[in-house]
Amino acid sequence: MIGIMAPASHNAPARLTPAAIVLLSYCAAFLVSKYVGLFPGYAIDDYQIISRQHEGEQIAFFLTQGRYGTALIDFLLQGSSLNMLSFSVISLIASMLFSGLFFATILAPAADTSRAALASIAAVLGAHSYYTEYVTFRQSALPMSMMFVLVWLAALSYRKAISSDGNRAINLILATLAGGGAMGFNQLAVCYCAAAVLYIHLQLLLRDPSVANRSLLGALLRATLYSAATGAVLIGVNVLLSACLRLALDIPTDGRASVLAMSQLGERAGQLATLIPQLLYRAETVASPLAKLTSLAAVAILFIPLRASELRVSLVALYFLLAGIAITVVPVTLSSTWWPVPRTLISFAFVLAGTAVLLLTREKPRRQIAATALFVVSALLFCAHSNSLLLNQQRLNRWDIAQAQAIALRAAADHPAVSGKIAIAGAHWYHSLAPGIAQGDMNTSAMAIGWAVDALFDESTGTDLSVRSAPELAPACEGRQPFPAKDSMIEVDGEVLVCM
Question: Residue ranges of the chain with pLDDT lower than 50?
Fold first, then answer.
């Protein structure tokens, strides 16, 4: 568990422990940056879930992606007349708390670590806008909270296993069970667990004199093997259990759960060459270069060894950064479907924070002051980006709902005989006022998504309409002005065709 207060001594009063500072600063930054997620909002998946469309198919869908934990939750909720959106607020708070406990448990800073530097690093970790994409998907809050509960328990068990506290074998089994369970809610748990194991052993390398005196290369290799073994075991558990469930229930595998083919290696190498710069410094909708580069500059300041004795720490931290980036991109690299949206790269913020904390083992007050200031600036920028993403989602929801209501009312007035059946042709995934708010499927208009548009109309009107995306009817719209022009609606085969 996390100790909150360090004991008082004759020379100093009791004060917060470094781990407690990490937890509190992380939670504060998480809440400030993502509080808009506590209010109603719809991603494209959320419309379908709240309308209860295809409810019976959701469990099978989760199992096709290897998310057996999420499938179990959905099964239990269906029997309770609830859905995952019912728990979006409490689950977001739980995600904040348990992810904070996980990070504080893993980072476990030494007692003499700079409190201000730790707080600023934890603030960047909590505010980072990559995780904000998950917040836009309200239905994901519950499974993500369960994932973080389990990776935290896995972290506690693994820390006990490598110490003298308790039975090593039992704690390793508990860590494996918790980690395997976390994989059933989100396979990105493997990134957190593998990076955490690597961090723990590198931290031991820098702190334990008996380890520090050994060969640096040998110690790095051992830490890497522990991390790789963690990833292999968790992936093996997830693949085996998922395959058994799919076989038993006769469910196919989703493309995103399939492994990259050998013929795709060349193409994937080029895609990775583009992804890494984007991860580190290039502009994207969820984060600006300034937000990214300020945190990288802070880490760079801490990296510079001012004397030969500091070189070892810099090398170890650099190794963690490079290996951590590799761990972060492994899931999107190995998947047969290239889908490197920000939410698939969320462990990068932990890698960056872990690198910085490793570097804080050297006492350089002036350098740490400069780094702390940059981390604070970066955290503020990430907070602003996170708020912007969530506020843009609310704008998009208003535009989508208003447009759906206008189409439904116009169809009912002009074509009363078939107004309940609407076909949409030529819809865009954006609205002209703000085309740049989308990235991947985040903040994408549900009007252009075939499996979401019917649920959008139902939720917008409170009426069970029959609405579909009909790209095959686009030729009938040639020469017509897009909605809301007078000639944008025509009746075709018993449906109201809306030309967008």
Answer: 12
Residues 313 and 173 occupy one common structural domain: yes
pLDDT at 183: 97
Beta strands in 13-60 (DSSP E): 15-16
pLDDT 10s digits, 262-305: 888 889 999 999 999 999 999 999 999 999 999 999 999 999 88
SS3 466: strand
Residue with tokens 């819809």: 427
7 inside domain: no
Within a domain: residue 447?
yes
Residues 170 and 340: their CA atoms lie apart, in Å, by 36
Q: 324-364, pLDDT tens digit by residue?
A: 999 999 999 988 889 999 999 999 999 999 999 999 987 67
Q: Whole-angstrom Cα distance, residue 141 to residue 143?
A: 6
Angle between helices 453-461 and 365-414 (to 10 degrees): 80
**Beta bridge mates, 468:** 423
Tally of domains within the chain: 2
Q: 2 lies in a domain?
A: no
Q: How far apart are the first and last CA of the chain?
A: 56
**Residue 399, Cβ neighbours under 10 Å: how many?**
17
Residues 79 and 192 in one domain: yes
The candidate with the shortest Cα–Cα distance to 241, out of 27, 67, 430, is 67
Burial of 314 (0-12, 13-18, 19+ CB in 10 A): middle
Closest C-alpha among 223, 207, 199, 206 to residue 103:
199
**pTM of this structure:** 0.93
Q: How far apart are CA 54 and CA 56, in angstroms?
A: 5
C-beta of residue 86 within 8 angstroms of C-beta of residue 53: no
Phi/psi at 164 (5° precision): -95, 10
CB-CB contact of 499 with 477 (8 Å): yes
DSSP 310-324: GHHHHHHHHHHHHHH
The answer to whether 158 touches 175, Cβ cutoff 8 Å, is yes
In this structure, the chain runs to a length of: 500
- The model's pLDDT over 187-196, given as tens digits with 9 standing for 90+, comes to 999 999 999 9
CA 25 to chain centre: 19
Q: Are 59 and 75 in contact (CB under 8 A)?
A: yes
**Distance from C-alpha of 69 to C-alpha of 182, rounded to nearest angstrom:** 8
